[in-house]
Amino acid sequence: MAQAANNSSVTPLKPFTPEDDVNLREALKRCSAATYEAAAQFRKTGNNEHLPAIVLGIIERYVEPDLRAKLKDADDDLRVIEDLGIDSLTMMEIVILVEDVLQMSINNEELRYLRTVGDVKTFIECKVRGLPLPKPTKFIPIEQIMSIMPIQPPFLFLGEASVNAHGANAKYKISGQEFFLQGHFKDNPVLPASIMLEALGQLAVLFLLEGQVGEDGKVVDHKTIFFTSCEGVRCHRVCKPGDVLNLSIKPKRLKSPLATFEGQIRVGQQKAATAEEITLTFGFAEEVVQPVQSAAPVSVPAQAVVNG
Amino acid sequence: MRKVYITGLGFITSIGNEAGSVSESLRELRHGIIQYPPFQKNDIPVKVAAPIRDFQTNTTDPEDWIFPARYNIRREALRGMAPHGVYSYCAMQQAVEDAKLTEADWSDLYTGLYAASAGSPFLLTHHVERMRKVGVMRCPPLGVVASISGTVNFNLVSQFKIKGASTGFSSACASSAHALGFAYDEIALGRQRRMFVVGAEDGNVESILPFAGMRALSLQTNPSIASRPFDVARDGFVGTGGATVLVLEGEEEVERRGAKVYCEVAGWGQASDGYNVAISHPDGAGLRVAIENALKYSDITSEAVDYVNAHATSTPIGDLSEARALKAIFGHSPTRPAISSTKALTGHGLSLAGAMEAGFCALAIREGFMPGSAHITQIDPACDGLNIIRSTLPHRPNVVLSNSSGFGGANVCLVFRAA
C-alpha cells in the first residue's frame, strides 16, 4: 500500500473510489463525523490541512470517555501516555487506524519517541509530506541529568526531563529534605520563589546542552552559561514538600550569546509560577563535538543561579 | 492436608445467568436448547444449540458486543477478550460478590486462578484471515491474546489483579475439571489460600460445528429431545457455551472471613484411557480408575455416594462407556447412588463442562436437591442396574461425584461433600 508517503517527491493522488469510501466510513465508524469528513477530504485532495483533525479524531476515539475532555482544549504538550491514559498497545491501534485511513506505513522504530499529541501531529505531517522526521523528544533520566549538568545536588532541581527541538519539560518533587526548607520558613517549609525560578533556569541550561542548539556540529560549552535577566515572573501557588513541580520552558529567541525562554511551573493542573522571559548567556565550545558526558564537574559552583 | 470449600459461584449458562435461575432450571428440568439461528442453513445438518441469553457477541469487533448493563467492562479490557472472555468476566464478578470478597481479599500472594477454555476459534480464524488479507502489520495488537487458548486466564488474571498461581488447562472436555482438581491441590497443600476456577467457551458456530465433522453432534431438530443422555435414541451432543466461576477457599480462610460455604471439595482423582485420541474406552476403563482414585483420595467409600453428576453428553458411545464405568463401581446396589446428566438441560459445554457441573453440584448440596436426567423416553438397556433418576429428587445429597472425560481419554472425577 501507498509507500508513496515515504518518498520525498510529491506523488500523484490515488483516485478515491466509492469502495474506498465505504472502507473509510467503516474504519472511522467510531470516530466523530468531522473526523470522517476530514479524512475523506484528505483522500480526495491530499490537502494536509486536514491532518490535525484526522489525527486528533482518531486519538480521541481511543481515549476513555472520561478523559476525552482533555483533548478538547489540548495543546501540543498533552502527553499521550501520562495525560490520556493511552498505553503502547492502544498506540498501536491508533497507528494501524492512521495507516489505514491515510494509506501510509509506519514502522515501529519511528513510533518509539512519540510522546505528545504535538509529536504525533508533527510526525504524521512529515510522513505524509515526505519530509525528514523531526528529531524525537529525548528523555533524560536523573542520572544522566547529573552527568550533563554543571549544577549538582544539593542544588539541582530537576528530576526526569525531556528535551526536543521546541523546548524542555522536567519534574521535580519537593522532598522536604532540601536544606533551605529548614529556615524557609520556621516550622512552615515553603519552596522559595527564587528556587522556582532557579529550577526553570536549570531546565533552560539542560535545553542549551541537549537541545541541538548549535548548528554544524557546534556544541554549547557548559562553562559559558550564565544567568542574565528575567522578566514578568509571577507566583500563583505556594509549593510545599510532597508537591511535584512540572517544569516547562520554551525558547523564544536563540542567538549566541543570548538565549531567551518562557517558563512555567504547574503542580497537577494548577499553575504555580510563570516567567515571561528568562535570559541566559551562552557560548559554543571551540572544537566540534566534544562529548560533555562522563567528566561530570562535581565541584563546579552553580552557574545559573538566580538571585532571588 | 487442609480442608477446601466452595464459597462462591458465578454462572453465565444456557439455563441461567445467575445462580438463582440456574438452580431453578435444574430443579424444574428447564433446558436451554433452541433451534440456533446461525445453523438454519441448507448445508448445515445440525440445527440445535444451547446459546446463552442476554449477550450479543456475534461480531468480530468487541466494541459492538452487547451485555447486561450491570457489568461494566472498559474498552481497554474488552479489546483483549473473546466472547467467552466476557462471559467469564461477568461470572467472575458474580462469584466474588457471592463470596463477599473485595479486591483487598483476593489481590494477594495467596489467591490464584486456574482456567480452562479452548480459546476462540471464531476470533482466531477472523484474525488469521485478516492477517492474510491486509498484511501482518495491520492486525489488531491484541488479536492473539483474545483468541488463543489461555485467553481466559490472561484476561481475568490481569483485570482482577490476581497475584498468586495462575495457568490454563487444556484437556478438552475434562479441562475445567482438571483446573478444579489442581486448584484443590494448591489449597490442600497450603500453597494458596484461595483459588478461582474458571471454565468457559464461546459456544458459537466456530466452536460447536467442527464437532459435526466427527459426527458427535445431535442432528435432532426438536430442542426438547435433542440432548437425552442415557436414552436409547440419543444421537449426539448439543453444543453450548458460557462461563462458570467457582471460589475455593481453605479452612483457615473460611474461618477467618466467616464465609458461607456451599460444600466441601473432598478430593479428586484422574486416570487416562490410553486407548484412542477421540473415542472413549468401551468399558470406561480410565473413568472407572479416575472414580476409584477420587474416592480413595477423598477417603470415601462408594456406598457413601448419594449422587453422581455424570459426564454423559448424549453420544451413543460415550454414555455407554460411562454407564459401564459406573456399573463397575456401583454395581452392588441398583438403588444407589442417584445418577443424572445435566447436559440434557445445558448441552455440552466442552472446556466449560467440568466447572459448570461442579457449580451445579454445589448448588444441589446447599439447596438440597438432586437434578433429574431429563428427556429420557426409553432408557438404554445398557444402563440397567444404575439408578438414573428421571425427575428431580428433593433431598440433600451428602456426597456427590462429578465426572468429566476429554479427548485422548483423559478422565477426572471430583468429589463434593456437604459441609
Any idea what the CATH architecture of chain B is?
3-Layer(aba) Sandwich
- Give the name of the CATH architecture of the largest domain in chain A: Roll
Largest interface: A-B, 13 and 12 residues
The residue fraction in helices of chain A comes out at 25-40%
Structure class of chain A: alpha+beta
Main beta sheet strand tally, sense and closure of chain B: 11 strands, mixed
Strand arrangement within the widest β-sheet of chain A reads 1-2-3-5-6-7-4
Count of β-strands of chain B: 13
How far apart are the first and last residues' alpha carbons of chain B, in Å? 16 Å
CATH class of the largest domain in chain A: Alpha Beta
CATH class of chain B: Alpha Beta
**In one word, what is the shape of chain B?**
globular
Number of domains of chain B: 1
How many whole angstroms does the radius of gyration of chain A measure? 22 Å
Can you tell me the CATH superfamily of chain B? Answer: Thiolase/Chalcone synthase
Number of helices of chain B: 15
The CATH topology of chain B is given as: Peroxisomal Thiolase, Chain A, domain 1
Query: Over all CA atoms, what is the radius of gyration of chain B?
Result: 20 Å
Please state the average pLDDT score of chain B.
97
